[in-house]
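stage 2 :: seqdesign
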């Protein structure tokens, strides 16, 4: 397999794994049918029973039997009865609201609730959009949400040519304590406007107050958007949306974050029906990282332990109004990545950026099997490649006031600054002066003075709108006055590390270019499974072929010019001719490495590789 990679300023495409999620594995199975005073049937459009569908009243989960029947004892506080949409069924949409419809309101005198689902082929590849904090407080802000965020989602989805099924989910704070705007937001997020089904998550400002209890505080939200603790499956990924707000319902700030006993029990039951070979995404409002737990039953650690039982797990959250995609929870040997996304309203609709200077936007997550193959933070009303804003280290911003905001630097002279809002620890931010790479930028936690001056100066808002973040980078320019270019690189090495977590026979090889190809990330994590052939690409391919014949899963990495050009004979004769399973990661393709000159620019690699029978060529439009 020949993989050609291109490096652009924006984007991450993690290498896909090949694990599947099969309900036939036996794991997570529980008996169907059951008994109780809340029951019904789940059938398809032809009237045939659908077995194995999880149904819940928000407190208890059960599963349909061979006859499609479910039953449970109704909880006295239950508000809805609903099913978890299986991977082989469509997401049903309410024709009156345009939002996903998988639930029915429980009525005291009605014991039976039947559901009709539409069968479809499982979508092993799909796209999920995650929308943080619309948090509208006026109809004018609803209009902005609809004409900016919703319009951008519609145009972004329409521009995709890969045919991936696409869904969306909000991450809480649909409104900002203005619950009378729920009907307007229902209309704004209808499928007819977004072009995709939009699921919902409740946030702290979605709880109505004053109310008697946390439950009564969520009823108005539920009446518009449905259950607050529910799940659905697309492909091999099980999504769970939960209310992680413990609200006293006495005022706007009268809440802590976490889960109550009965919620944790519900989650355990829901996940008990999910095969451990699946991936799980938990969608909440308040982040696990930095969420102010307060006193009470939080269950954050226990929930992480539940998630760690699955093949892969991620957490999507928002709430902070800045973009923090660089946090990993460690549970034993399992890594659980949390994406704390910037918000659609930015800094509460005071402008078009969040408090950290990241633009208003939403997350885009692409899945193949259980693998997250691509993640970007999509800026609203900008192209997805807009991921960096550059500054001079000596810049001072006032926002038209007597105050000033500047970068937290002891020596700002000749400093190049960059806000790279989607960067994480695997990214390298490269600096080129007059076309020649002169070094990499370093990271420092600080405010973005440009956005801070706008909010705290021009808008006259409080200093909390000047939010420190961990995606500001700095660099000392070698030649003042030089033409500067900044490039963010990521992807390949991090994806290999992810693969190694599942395949203990994985071997990665390089030819003295580990820093450039990013296999150095793998080398640091798995030094005993990394081999450097030196500046000897022909040997690299021969050794890779030999290792592959002994049962190793081998990735051989180098620049496209050397992998496909210099080593063509070895690729042809030792890998292609005998059909040896070697993955060739060819980076810096085409003219993307122009600074190194024509000797390193390879535009012939695809043509060369296509002449080899059996060679599979993958051309990534963004990182792998």
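stage 2 :: out
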């Amino acid at each position: 397999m020949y993989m050609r990679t291109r490096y652009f300023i924006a984007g991450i495409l993690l290498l896909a794994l090949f694990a599947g999620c099969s309900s036939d594995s036996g794991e997570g199975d529980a008996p169907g049918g059951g008994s109780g005073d809340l029951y019904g049937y789940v059938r398809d459009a032809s009237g045939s029973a659908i077995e194995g569908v999880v149904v819940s009243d928000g407190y208890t989960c059960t599963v349909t039997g061979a006859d499609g029947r479910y039953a449970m004892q109704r909880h006295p506080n239950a508000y809805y009865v609903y099913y978890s949409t299986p991977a082989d069924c469509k997401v049903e949409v309410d024709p009156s609201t345009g939002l996903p419809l998988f639930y029915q309101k429980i009525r005291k005198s009605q014991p039976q609730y039947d559901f009709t689902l539409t069968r479809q082929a499982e979508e092993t590849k799909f796209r999920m959009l995650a929308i943080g904090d619309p948090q509208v407080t006026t109809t004018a802000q609803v209009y902005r949400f609809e004409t900016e965020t919703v319009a951008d989602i519609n145009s972004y989805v329409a521009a995709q040519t890969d045919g991936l099924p696409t869904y969306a989910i909000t991450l809480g704070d649909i409104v900002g304590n203005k619950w009378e705007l729920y009907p307007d937001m229902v209309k704004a997020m209808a499928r007819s406007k977004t072009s995709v089904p939009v699921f919902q998550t409740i946030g702290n400002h979605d709880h109505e107050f004053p109310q008697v209890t946390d439950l009564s505080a969520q009823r108005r939200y539920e009446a518009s958007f449905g259950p607050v603790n529910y799940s659905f499956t697309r492909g091999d990924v099980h999504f769970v949306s939960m209310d992680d707000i413990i609200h006293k319902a006495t005022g706007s700030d009268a809440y802590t974050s976490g889960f109550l006993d009965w919620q944790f029990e519900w989650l355990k039951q829901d996940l008990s029906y999910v095969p451990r070979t699946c991936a799980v995404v938990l969608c909440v409002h308040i982040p696990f990282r930095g969420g102010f737990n307060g006193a009470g039953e939080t269950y954050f650690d226990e929930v992480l332990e539940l998630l760690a039982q699955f093949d892969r797990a991620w957490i999507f959250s928002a709430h902070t109004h800045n973009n923090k995609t660089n946090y990993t929870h460690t549970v034993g040997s399992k890594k659980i990545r949390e994406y704390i996304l910037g918000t659609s309203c930015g800094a509460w609709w005071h402008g078009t950026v969040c408090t950290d200077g990241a633009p208003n936007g939403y997350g885009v997550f692409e899945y193949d099997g259980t693998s997250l193959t691509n993640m970007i933070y999509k800026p609203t009303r900008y192209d997805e490649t807009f991921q960096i804003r550059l500054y001079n280290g000596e810049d001072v911003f006032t926002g038209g006031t007597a105050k000033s905001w500047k970068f937290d630097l002891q020596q700002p002279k000749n400093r190049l600054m960059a806000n790279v809002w989607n960067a994480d620890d695997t990214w390298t931010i490269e600096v080129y002066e007059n076309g020649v790479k002169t070094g990499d930028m370093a990271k420092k936690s600080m405010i973005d003075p440009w956005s801070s001056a706008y909010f705290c100066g021009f808008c006259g808002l409080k200093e909390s709108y000047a939010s420190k973040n961990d995606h500001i980078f700095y660099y000392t320019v070698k030649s003042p006055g030089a033409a500067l270019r900044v490039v963010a690189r990521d992807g390949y090495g991090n994806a290999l590390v992810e693969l190694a977590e599942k395949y203990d026979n994985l071997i990665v090889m390089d030819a003295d270019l580990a820093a450039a190809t990013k296999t150095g990330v793998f080398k640091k994590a798995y030094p005993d499974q990394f081999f450097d052939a030196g500046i000897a690409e022909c040997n690299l391919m021969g050794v890779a072929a030999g290792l592959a014949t002994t049962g190793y899963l081998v990735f051989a990495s180098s620049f496209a010019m050397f992998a496909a050009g210099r080593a063509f004979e070895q690729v042809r004769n030792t890998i292609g001719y005998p059909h040896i399973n070697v993955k060739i990661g060819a980076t810096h393709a085409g003219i993307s490495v122009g600074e190194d000159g024509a000797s390193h620019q390879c535009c012939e690699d695809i043509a060369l590789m296509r002449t080899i029978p059996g060679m599979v060529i993958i051309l990534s439009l963004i990182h792998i």
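stage 3 :: structure notes
- Confidence is low (pLDDT under 50) at residues 4-20, 22-31.
- The radius of gyration is 26 Å.
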